[in-house]
Design a protein that fits this description.
This protein has 340 residues and is of the alpha/beta class. It contains 11 helices and 8 strands. The structure holds zinc ion.
Length: 340
């Protein structure tokens, strides 16, 4: 047993040495270690991403060996990202671009023009690792499931025709810790292939992250197991995977991407749904004007609470990370749905 401990200590020291060489800046110390990677000096591996949840994963796995750029600035809504010529150049110069096709059309275009599309050597398209499905939830607009708020088979395609046209698949995989963990694994694989020298560090970072996400999943399962109400009424349809994972049904005021003012007919439908299903809390988002949600709440006597889809860091989440915001979301849901 003592020898095993010695081994563990030795393994822990190696990444630290590699780290010291990597960030040292004067390029003299690490020429021996760097070996086949053609970057003998301080320039860290640059990863370009388009949204905070991807940025956070890349940073957690890459640690000090990577420089992660998020093209969506904190407080901005990522769905309608627009890229400046400088941003396009950043995509072109990246050592790795990690993106989700369909989430941000401008980034899709830049990846195609600058990096040869999803199959490019320095590109990781993460949607294929996330097991994306058609939007899940109750499609009250079409009328076929307005009265079955507890029908969790609603993920069989009901949601696909509910009036938004932002692609066929729900991109919001990060709100489901299990899907998020799968994507973390894909990022680790790609990063390890591109930077073999630091692969062991990435593996260590991944296993710590996986543990945290597994714990988070367990806490959501336990925390949402017994709720008085399982219908969640949200501002935009970001919470379908979360709802599906934990036995909830999502009704979104707008579609997969926030789209400005919904029409009065839609607001009336949601209002009817809230009354019919005794929904007591309407969820708003930090980056969406809460006026419509507040109108529905006032008309029905429901309260409002902020549920964060974690698409960007915002004023209210500044200084927190994904895990902390998810835990705040869990508390908000437990309160809003009457969970015990
Ligand atoms: Zn969204």
């Amino acid at each position: 047993m003592p020898s095993r401990r010695t081994l563990a200590v030795t393994l822990a020291v190696i990444p630290l040495l590699a780290l010291a060489g990597c960030g040292s800046g004067d390029g003299t110390a690490d020429s021996g270690q760097a070996g086949e990677t053609a970057t003998p000096t301080a320039s860290r591996f640059t990863i370009v991403t388009g949204a905070y949840p991807v940025e956070w994963l890349a940073q957690r796995i890459g640690g000090d060996h990577v420089n992660v750029v998020n093209l969506t600035k904190p407080g901005a809504e990522p769905h309608d990202l627009e890229l400046s010529p400088q941003d396009v150049a950043t995509v072109a110069d990246a050592d790795l671009v990690i993106y989700e096709q369909g989430l941000q059309p401008a980034l899709d275009d830049a990846v195609t023009s600058e990096q040869g599309g999803p199959q490019g050597a320095k590109v990781l398209e993460i949607g294929k690792s996330a097991d994306l499905t058609a939007p899940q939830g109750t499609s009250i607009g079409a009328g076929h499931s307005a009265d079955d708020g507890h029908d969790h088979s609603a993920d069989d395609g009901h949601g696909a025709d509910d009036g938004h046209d932002h692609g066929d698949l729900d991109p919001h995989f990060w709100l489901d810790p299990i899907r998020y963990e799968s994507v973390a694994r894909a990022i680790y694989n790609q990063l390890g292939n591109l930077d073999q020298v630091n692969k062991q560090t990435f593996a260590t970072n991944l296993s710590e992250l996986s543990r945290e996400l597994t714990t988070l999943d367990g806490d959501f399962s336990a925390g949402l197991r017994q709720c008085q109400n399982t219908s969640i009424v949200t501002a935009h349809a970001a919470f379908g995977y979360l709802a599906g994972r934990y036995g909830l049904t999502q009704v979104a005021i707008t579609g997969l991407a926030p789209e400005g003012e919904p029409d009065p007919a839609r607001i009336a439908e949601v209002t009817d749904y809230v009354r019919a299903h005794n929904v007591t809390t309407i969820y708003t988002e930090p980056l969406i004007n809460p006026a419509v949600a507040k109108t529905v709440a006032q008309e029905t006597g429901a309260a409002t609470a902020v549920l964060d889809p974690i698409e960007s860091l915002t004023d209210s989440s500044a200084g927190q990370d994904y895990l902390q915001i998810m835990r705040a979301n869990l508390e908000t849901l437990q309160k809003g749905q009457g969970c015990s």
